[in-house]
Amino acid sequence: MGGRNLRRVRFVLVAALLLLGVTAGSATAGALITGARIKDGTVAGVDVRDQNLTGADVGDGKLTINDVGGLAPGPKGDAGAPGYPGADGVPGLVQRSAPRTLEPGEQLSWVVFCNTGEAAVSGGVSSERPDLVTVVRSFADGFFWSVEVLNDSTTQVRVHGWAMCIPV
Length: 168
What we know:
Elements (H helix, E strand, L loop, with lengths): L1 H31 L32 H4 L25 E9 L4 E7 L4 E10 L5 E9 L2 E8 L5 E11 L1
Antiparallel strand pairs: 1-6, 2-5, 3-6, 4-5
């Protein structure tokens, strides 16, 4: 009986060692092959399970030109149809500007002048902080544009009166 038990023990021991070797090998392989351990630029489409690298294979699910980089441009496409001609502009139309700085709570009127031989046909007021100012008036007055602005805030504000001028 002793020989038979010894064979059984050897069989169990060999089986246990084989099982230990197989599981240790796969655990080691699993521990070695992680994204942190793969050298950048070494994985290709053939290394992906279906040999096709897609957005699903990228961590954020999006495959962009930045993910693949360095691609040569494709062939040039056909020329598109010509565009429609644009409308003619007003000959000599120019914008004139008159900036001002308004102190907190200040209301100020001023005029934006066109050059000699020009007349204002449009105009307005603009500001880097339109939420802080109120346009009281903005209108054409012959050869210039008049504006009046109130600074409703507790902050100094830069505003620009402007006029669109054409030759007369």
